[in-house]
Amino acid sequence: QVQLVESGGGLVQPGGSLRLSCAASGSVFSIDAGAWYRQAPGKQRELVARITNTYTTNYADSVEGRFTIWRDNAIDTVFLQMNSLNAEDTAVYYCNAQVWPEGKGYFNPLDLWGQGTRVTVSS
Asked: What is the pLDDT of residues 9-57, one digit of tens each?
């Protein structure tokens, strides 16, 4: 069974940094696009950053210049480096990716979500 496993959330002081990881586990052939979303209390889930299989990236205006998304295809993992964190970045962060499983019979990649990892920015 293919799934996304997230790690790296936690409590950090304002101005600090965190790195989130999203690893595709199971019988994975490759990842197409990968993305990070977040959902703050009382707010809708929003796109934070996205990376395609050609390494094209795009970011929400609120994180541009502070967050960096990248991928390591060798280990089927998408990362999000978050710098200069502030209270408005507090949220549950979710990984989303389109994953091709190994084997035949798949005409489209699986659209998968991670379980979510909580990021709290507070002094």
From this structure: 999 999 999 999 999 999 898 999 999 999 999 999 999 999 999 999 9
Instruction: Using DSSP bridges, classify how beta strands 117-121 and 10-12 pair: parallel, antiparallel or unpaired.
Output: parallel
The three-point CA angle 48-5-72 to 5° equals: 70
pLDDT of residue 105: 82
Q: Are 71 and 79 in contact (CB under 8 A)?
A: yes
**Rounded CA Rg of the chain:** 14
Taking every pair of Cα atoms in the chain, the longest distance, rounded to a whole number of angstroms, is 51
Contact predicate 119/21, CB 8 Å: no
Burial state string for 64-95 with b = 16 or more CB within 10 A and e = fewer than 16: eeebbbebeeeebbbbbebeebeeebbbbbbb
